[in-house]
Specification:
Layout: H1 2-7, E1 11-14, H2 22-34, H3 46-49, H4 54-62, H5 73-79, E2 83-87, E3 90-93, H6 94-108, H7 112-117, H8 119-136, H9 143-149, H10 160-163, H11 185-200, H12 235-242, E4 250-252, E5 255-257, E6 275-278, E7 281-284, E8 286-295, H13 328-339, H14 351-358, H15 364-371, H16 379-387, E9 392-393, E10 396-397, H17 398-401, H18 412-424, H19 436-449, E11 453-457, E12 462-465, E13 474-478, E14 485-487
Amino acid sequence: MESIYRKANGTIVWLGNQEDDSDLAFEALKAISEDPLDEHNIPIPESIFTAGSPTRAAIKQLFRRPYWRRVWIIQEVSVSENIIVCCGKASIKWDRLEFALKAIISVNSEDGNLARDFKLVEDYFLTLYRFRLTMTQDRPLDLLSALNRSGSALATCQRDRVFALLGITLDGNSYISDPNYKQDDRSVFIDMAKARLVHTRVLDMICLKAYSPSTTWDLPSWIPDWLNLGQVFPKRMTDYLSGCGTENFVINAFGKSPYAHPATFNASAGSIASFRMQGSKLKVRGIILDTIDGLSSALDPDSEYKPDSMYSNMSQSTSSSPNAYGTKGALFNSLFRTMSEFPNSMHGLPHDRYKSTFSNLMTPSTIKLLEQSKNFNFKHLLVWLDRNKDFLVGDQTMEEYFTGSTRPVKSFIARAHKRLFKLSHNTTYAFDLYSPEVCTAAAVRVVVEFGIRIITTEFGLVGRAHPAARKGDRLALFAGCSFPVILRPSESVEE
């Protein structure tokens, strides 16, 4: 079907018969796109801004039609060169429809009521717009990214939410070489995982399971729910696992690729996966490294602390106080790397400057600064810090680490950077984006609000874990897997 749409002289989108004042909606959309003075001065009819107006209601109803959410229209809209959208006797070219809707959406942010009314218009239209933009610019699209983007799309058979995207993705055939409509949904999803493992000889795909909730398909514990990654799966992980990004000819999880991100994870040192599949079971080779002995609490998926959260809201400190890093300063540095999501520098702030402000994260002056910050909302971070102030890392609590009792190990270069920073920057900070305390807290906030739990191990290591991790879970390395994995012993041989 993809090749048919791509080669066609034109494509007609049929929305159905005229109803719910659809003619009025088409007139308004044409008027907006007819003769704009310039891209910043677009004549939008006053009726669109008037709550309850027939024009506003008509546009809203037009985009409530089932057509816009069907997964099969994605390839139709993405690759067709000339598209005319028809409804009853009214019609509009796709380019003009696109221009009009972008103009309305750009005003959305200035009118809260308008934003609420056109929320579905924005969601459905922008999904199609992004797919079409990717295709028209000849940018590569991988299946994971396509599934991520189309998470709200609908299909009568759930396997069609995958099948409909195969023709527009560069790696679709490595998951499904030939769609089989005789298979049920569960079998299709299992075969996708098996095919991908055989094709890449890399186990990274199994890490997707941590991002997909339980489903009605009763999938094996190592196979993700391919249709439910869009809500929580981070875009950079999608790019990494798919080998699709903006840099050319670099090495990533799946080897050399013309569209690949650099390999930022290398837990298995580039080894080749060794595995066997027996029915729904996956047998791999690897080593057990350590056991989780302590966990911080975690924000639940809604970034709120709730008594009935699916994850534990209580920190569980380690039963001992080992330190695998040798010194308190080295352990502090590891905790800093674990809890911070940061670039090498931000707004000229040297990497080492983060460390010094990190050690003062819970001092009264920093807490006050974060409470009054105008650039970030630190409410959840402050709650998390309070809930975990007694969590032990080594032989110190979080509160002791964050009130300046432990300092990072500083090299000669780091000390020089600090002196240069003082010479070249004004060290008096207001409550602004450039405050070192605010920048550091923002880097920690990213980790906390993603629901990550800080863990300690029996051997004395510190790291991050999925919010569902428990004490007693095992840390392991698999041959051919770029990430360390967490395993949970099971009494059942079927799990």
